[in-house]
Amino acid sequence: MRKIERIAIVGAGLMGRGIAQVFLDHPGYQVTLYDKFPAMLDVAKGRIQADAQSVGSTSCDVERLHLTSELAEAVGRADLVIEAIPEKLELKQQLFAEVEKLAPRDCILASNTSVIPITSIAEKLENKSRMIGTHWWNPPYLIPLVEVVQTTESSTEVIAAVMELLKGLGKTPVHVKKDVPGFVGNRLQHALWREAIAIVESGICDAETVDLCVKNSFGLRLSVLGPLANADLVGAELTEDIHRVILPDLSTAKEPSSMLREMIEHGKEGSATGKSFLGWSPVDREQAVRQLTVRLMQLLACKPSTKDDDPGL
Q1: Angle at the Cα of 275 (from 269 to 267), degrees rounded to 5?
Q2: CA angle 4, 8, 10 (to 5 degrees)
Q3: Which of the following CATH numbers is that of domain 6-176: 3.30.428.70, 3.40.50.720, 3.10.450.120, 3.40.228.10?
Q4: 139 preceded by cis ω (within 30°)?
Q5: Which fold does the domain 185-256 belong to in CATH?
Q6: pTM of this prediction?
Q7: pLDDT tens across 228-277, in order?
């Protein structure tokens, strides 16, 4: 495969800008950001620059970023196209069908979808072997993980090339070998969300208590000790004993909680409305984002070493 140097990112929203920022932090990449709405492009460089400054980056070169509202211009010479548009299957299918006609025949096509199976997105493509998933996590310039999702038709060479590219960017790519809804990270995250909502809905405790329990217990250790490492730590026998008691009582709902529908119908749609699980206002939301950024930077600054004799803490 040819060297990946020309990057086209489709969608200048939060994720598209964040992914662009990662490439702009590293020299040698020609980065093009496309959006069909000129207003999104008008603010893109300024917001990327502000985000870079907020995390102390001095290497982010926004002058290398090319902006365009013409899809053909964006992808016509690209080595890699990363899609970051809204989570609507038909939109993504239509986009990639068009990109396939405009991009070079050996250009890699990647979707940043967080839950939609890549096989479904690639359904209208003639050549499905170059289509994969690259699920970045928000904010992309801070969170190390990128899930590289393989379909049954994805080329092994494409997977290997993208994994190597991401490692060179300082990311932590993981190979997801089976294309399932939510991949790995979001299946784990939303299993937790389902139980959290069920706990509140059934009156066990309020929303604030749920979050306090997570943040002040196992949430503190998750960045060092994953769930399966923890199972190894306590042992299979204890894990089995605990599961025998608790699993039958956990939520197994196959549909979103009715509590969510009731919240939506009563205008309790989240912090943007000032009505939510925790009653957050837009100001609370902005404060939480700032606190998250600071905390992530602190955690990443003391990331454990891979050397056995140096915990790096």
Answers
A1: 50
A2: 145
A3: 3.40.50.720
A4: yes
A5: N-(1-d-carboxylethyl)-l-norvaline Dehydrogenase; domain 2 (1.10.1040)
A6: 0.91
A7: 999 999 999 999 999 999 999 999 999 999 999 999 888 888 877 777 88
